[in-house]
Description:
Layout: E1 25-34, E2 37-47, E3 52-56, H1 63-70, E4 78-83, E5 86-87, H2 92-97, E6 99-102, H3 114-124, H4 129-142, H5 158-170, E7 176-180, H6 188-203, E8 207-211, H7 215-221, E9 224-229, E10 232-237, E11 246-252, H8 255-264, E12 270-271, E13 279-283, H9 285-298, E14 303-308, H10 312-324
Parallel strand pairs: 3-8, 3-9, 6-7, 7-8
Antiparallel strand pairs: 1-2, 1-4, 4-5, 9-10, 11-13, 11-14, 12-13
Amino acid sequence: xxxxxxxxxPVPLEPAPDNPDVPGISATELYRAFGxxxxxxxxxxxxxxxxxxxxxxxNGSGKTTLLLILAGLLQPDRGGAQILGCDxxxxxxxxxxxxxxxxxxxxxxxxxTCREILTTFGSAYGLDKQTATSQAKTLxxxxxxxxxxxxxxxxLSRGQKxxxxxxxxxxxxxxxxxxxxxxxxxxxxxxxxxxxxVRALAEQGxxxxxxxxxxSELDEFTxxxxxLSKGRTxxxxxxxxxxxxxxxxxxxxxxxxxxxxxxxxxxxxxDAPGGSGEVIVxxxxxxxxxxxxxxxxxxxxxxxxVAPLVGRLExxxxxxxxxxx
Length: 325
């Protein structure tokens, strides 16, 4: 029988393993079906400690089901998952105590104040009243919710509820964070603040797995990426995709000279859309782009634009999407 949604009861638990070589999250051949639908169909990956790992895939690819399994809230049919070495089934309470879970919808008691929600969850995770109250105040201040400390959750906007959801996930100072669409409903400034908060948590050594459809923003602060399709791991990217080549837009003051130069050094090019006079080439990351600019200037070609067409994650996603068609 699958696990139901519930918070961890306040029972004594062993401390998390202090071994930086142990993955923060490890999934091995995870399967989970709902009737004839295979929501998770053999997912395998590791997410290292002290890093932000993106979980990317189209709607229906199994991201939320996978996150529920990793959070210890849903049992896999087969396979296994570990949180800092703790099995999510065999050592469910221990694993869940190490995880901060932020679902994409808030789902809490709207009549309770923000402070009450956080202290209630803190108590459920075994924090004493003083610690829970202190931690709640710190998080409300850090996430710009202090003015709503004594307001019921029902008065919060969608974005404010998202921030409260993050505070709730952090109340027990977990070592692993599972974030499902955390930027949904946030304004641009709040998105920047979320990015900075997530990076700071990773720098503290926490393992963060974040699912989002906003790939351009994920590109700015994630270290690794897991790509899912139809419940399967189709690619695990440890940040090396730049070495595989990606599309770059290149422009120069003398368009003809640029094209002649690229042809002379055997770099294939095609005209950029929109009639800008720029061209599209495939380069292996920023180092290759810098070398191209240097070579162009040495050849007397004044380059004014060198920029990736899309972000690393977006390009990889689009390539995988194209392969599925």
